[in-house]
Amino acid sequence: MRENDADLKSSTFDVGTACADCPAFELNLCHALAQAAKQGPPMTLRPSEHTVAARRLICRARDVLEVVPIICQGWAASAVTLPDGRRQILSFLLPGDVVSTALIFDPVSQCSVEAITEVRYRAFKRTEFKAALHTHPSLFDKFSRVWVDEKASANQLAIDLGRRTADERIARLIFNLSNKLAQRSLLRDWTMDFPLRQHQIADATGLTVVHVGTVLSGFRRAGLLDINDRSLTISDPAGLRRVANM
Amino acid sequence: MRENDADLKSSTFDVGTACADCPAFELNLCHALAQAAKQGPPMTLRPSEHTVAARRLICRARDVLEVVPIICQGWAASAVTLPDGRRQILSFLLPGDVVSTALIFDPVSQCSVEAITEVRYRAFKRTEFKAALHTHPSLFDKFSRVWVDEKASANQLAIDLGRRTADERIARLIFNLSNKLAQRSLLRDWTMDFPLRQHQIADATGLTVVHVGTVLSGFRRAGLLDINDRSLTISDPAGLRRVANM
DNA sequence: CGTGAGCTTGACTTGTTTCAACCAACGTGG
DNA sequence: CCACGTTGGTTGAAACAAGTCAAGCTCACG
């Protein structure tokens, strides 16, 4: 698959160099777009490229976006915030992830998206993307798979928040992230980059920062994992999996 | 809109008599299908009809369904259950609701669906439905709107479960249901049919049955609402809205 | 050198769960 | 017709998980 990248870059549809270098290229919608452009009728779909610094917003809830962003590099989080400041992170976005498939059909964003690290992303014109969906069946297939996955994670999130203990929620969050990173070859010997702050873990798991801290130091003391210098190692995968109830 | 129903019933695509009588007909995917069949290229799409008794399953998680069910009458709940019995209800399904849009693309069900009252539903062949989506743009539009709504409620559920108190969750559940029923003209003077058992409210809000009971009797004592004989009246809409933080 | 963001830890409070007993309504079968 | 189990609801007491408040620490940054 990788040997085609050069062709893809120079085809009528320019995925751009960066996207093909992205670790998640094969599972990326960008890739699907490129494939579709090669195999189906040609299309000119030139996404704009953007870079945002850590802690900056990519979009806020209720913004009208005429564009569908796909993450190419870095970590981001999509979240909802209540008027009184309570916040719930709905998902962490890694390279290859679409911010939300809903954006392809509805320009108003349901949630705000914040860069955790520095983030590079491509923005595809919504109308063009939508049109391409109709003309390129393989793209549509890929897209519907992404959509189904998105729904599955939303369901998982609901049962995690509604019915699981703090320990389970945090252990599962770490496993889910490690799985996503593994798919992208960003996990080696159970070690991964881990740019999350405790308050972000709290917002993702529906807990308070303090409690996240105590649970994590519990895990550390139990020899399940180790976090330092923005890097996380799962020292006892079996043990952590037991805690996570996976 | 209603005066077309007769035509619709007798067009090449037979929605059937029952569906057109459904209180949710205008916002129904069945209706969109009927419209599409009339206006676009003709299609033959004959859903099968089913009736299931209260407390029976319509499908269980991981079932392979070659069919997309749309509720025509009654209440149902879609839920996920953990091996140890913990359960989370993801949504209540009312007439006009598709069980899950994901079923159109992926035959394996992500959750189990249980009838709360007796339920009548129509099952459309997945492949036929999917094909119709491509040939009938208006159907696709309607469908994508349903998808976006589905995503929005999933997001709402996440923040409710993650960040709201028991009082808020229950009050909001009642408001959300009353809104859905109002759309279907099934709400009069803040009174509605309410077939839910406390344990179902508990599973929907991530609480225990006992706590749901105490919160509800709190609401009752505060004069916010009144439940008896499977019927619920919101006596103090403003007060309940304040509790719900809407 | 001060300031602020992030992490850790401890003491205390609170919301929710757990356990338990009890009651009412209902269906079923003797 | 009554005896019986089942399901659903109510209430109270005790236990517990997680939240709140607070202090002290490190570290990066201007």
Question: What would the keywords be for this entry?
Answer:
homodimer; 246 residues; alpha+beta; four-stranded antiparallel beta sheet; globular; DNA-binding
Structural topology:
The structure is a homodimer.
Chain A: H1 5-10, H2 17-21, H3 29-39, E1 48-52, E2 57-59, E3 67-73, E4 76-81, E5 87-93, E6 112-115, E7 119-125, H4 126-135, H5 137-163, H6 166-183, E8 191-193, H7 198-205, H8 209-221, E9 225-227, E10 231-234, H9 237-244
Antiparallel strand pairs in A: 1-7, 2-6, 3-7, 4-5, 4-6, 8-10, 9-10
Chain A binds a DNA duplex (30 and 30 nucleotides) through helix 8.
Write a structural description.
- The structure is a homodimer of 246-residue chains.
- Chain A is an alpha+beta fold and 246 residues long.
- Helices cover 43% and strands 20% of the residues of chain A.
- Chain A has nine helices and ten strands.
- In chain A, the strands form three sheets. A four-stranded antiparallel sheet of chain A has the order 2-6-4-5. In chain A, strands 1-7-3 form a three-stranded antiparallel sheet.
- In chain A, strand 9 (225-227) and strand 10 form a beta hairpin.
- The longest helix of chain A has 27 residues, at 137-163.
- Mean pLDDT of chain A is 89; it is low at 1-13.
- The interface between A and B is large, with 36 and 36 residues.
- The structure holds a DNA duplex (30 and 30 nucleotides).
Which class best fits the helix and strand makeup of chain A? alpha+beta
Catalogue the unreliable spans of chain A. Answer: 1-13
Helix residue percentage of chain A: 40-55%
**In whole angstroms, how far apart are the ends of chain A?**
32 Å
Largest interface: A-B, 36 and 36 residues
Q: Largest sheet of chain A, order of strands side by side?
A: 2-6-4-5
Per DSSP E runs of 2 or more residues, the count of β-strands of chain A stands at 10
- Reading the helices and strands of chain A in chain order gives HHHEEEEEEEHHHEHHEEH
Mean pLDDT of chain A: 89
